[in-house]
Specification:
173 residues, single chain, 8 helices, 76% helix
């Protein structure tokens, strides 16, 4: 009888993971790509995110949304990858041709996407979560472990940098 309950719980966890992958894989991949500037590393980060989530599924208390919880795991995974010795010694400059199919389509978004990818990591994180993931300031704060005021300040700085960069780009054309 106990073995049957364990087996059923295992199947429930697996089904929940399948649902999470179906719902969140693409947005997490976009976010991880912006953070890591490498499509294969982004795929690895997303895979690692779901593996960590699966292992911690029983401890998820529902104090935040599932999206916020997964985003926090993904952001921490990306940060760990960026801290690695190998990551620091690889040229991460990108060109529009480097953008994967999973990046935002359309010419109108290309300049903005490139500008976002040039932001410092802290500002890129909040812009990515707020605008591209559609999270609220509160959710961004939960995902990053920041106060709402800190998120607002980072958003303001990032928007100002983006505005300046996009204006500078138009001046050169």
């Amino acid at each position: 009888m106990e073995a049957a309950r364990v087996m059923e719980a295992q199947q429930d966890r697996e089904q929940r993971l399948i649902e999470m992958v179906g719902t969140y894989q693409r947005p997490l991949l976009r976010m991880c790509y912006l953070m890591l500037k490498d499509e294969e590393l982004a795929r690895d980060a997303v895979q690692e995110t779901f593996l960590k989530a699966y292992r911690a599924l029983e401890r998820f208390r529902g104090e935040s949304s599932e999206q916020t919880w997964l985003t926090r795991i993904a952001m921490n995974t990306c940060r760990d990858m960026r801290r690695s010795f190998w990551f620091k010694h690889v040229d991460r400059r990108i060109t529009p041709e480097d953008l994967p199919e999973t990046a935002w389509p359309g010419e109108s978004n290309l300049a903005l996407t490139m500008a976002v990818m040039q932001l410092p990591p802290r500002e890129r994180e909040v812009i990515t979560l707020y605008y591209y993931q559609g999270m609220t300031v509160q959710e961004v704060g939960q995902a990053l472990g920041l106060a709402q005021s800190s998120v607002s300040i980072r958003l303001k700085k990032a928007k100002e940098r983006l505005r300046q960069e996009l204006e500078r780009g138009y001046d050169h054309e």
